[in-house]
Amino acid sequence: MRKSIFYSAEYSNLIADNPAKKLNAKGGTPKKDKNVLSDEQAKLLLNTVRDLPPYVFVMIGLYAGLRREEILALKWDCVFLEGAVPYISVRRAWRSEHNRPVVSTELKTKAAKRDVPIPKCLADCLREEKEKTASEYVIADSNGDPLADSQFRRIWNYIKIRSTKERTIYRFVNGQAIKKQFKPEPGQKCVNRDHITYCLDFDVTPHLLRHTYITNLIHAGVDPKTVQYLAGHENSKVTMDIYAKVKYNKPEQLSAVVNGALNPLRE
Asked: How far is residue 64's CA from residue 45's CA, in Å, rounded to a whole number?
């Protein structure tokens, strides 16, 4: 009731800012809005990690929307590439126990069990990867086994180290470690590693890939129930409440969307 009063006062221009807009009606601290990769950022990320260990993981996250635990548990017996419609069947989940990988058929929810059709770019990527590996796992260590948590973090570091995010570095002067904050500039060479360039001026997490996939489906006009199924959510309210955010908010970015939606009304 009190929250509605503040909204009414803001709508009537009686107050400039609504102090209750971030309050959660169910109590507790509301979740922060999640970012999403723009098309340009996704392209830059893929170009940056191409031929590097995280590439296949990033492709699956961006083009199939699987959770991290679903990707790390994915076996080739659940990747169907030869039919008219290539798809991934989600049937297993990964977890870490004392830094040891455990793969089981116990998924996050019943809705997580699903068959996800994949676009040609991901199907081609997986075909190429399958030709190079003898492991039954799509993402595997050098022995063909599923990754331990520490191994995955080392793989993900290929992305983190190319970020322009501020970090702490240490300089050794007369045998003493001097701590210093360092903010790389895009295009700058990595400290002590000339073959690495700082180029990712945005944060990337494993879940951000999945979030981008789901958001792209919504903004492409895919109906909520279909998005819910492809995402493996138990209900569409979760899908729309969490993921249906504005992808673009500048006039030049929104123009094509608005015109494409409204032009038929004038015919």
From this structure: 16
Identify the residue whose tokens are 């039954």.
136
Judge contact between 115 and 89, C-beta under 8 A: yes
Cα–Cα distance measured from residue 188 to residue 198, given in angstroms and rounded to the nearest whole number:
6
Q: Are 170 and 160 in contact (CB under 8 A)?
A: no
The residue count for the chain: 267
Residue-wise pLDDT for 93-112, tens only, equals 999 999 999 999 999 899 99
Model pLDDT for residues 110-130, shown as the tens digit of each residue: 999 999 999 999 999 999 999
Q: Which CATH number, 3.40.50.300, 1.10.10.10, 3.40.50.720, 1.10.443.10, labels domain 39-163+200-248?
A: 1.10.443.10
Look at the block and give the residue holding tokens 């360092």. Answer: 182
Backbone angle region of 232, left / alpha / beta, with phi > 0 → left and psi within -120 to 50 → alpha: left
Q: What single-letter DSSP state applies at residue 182?
A: E
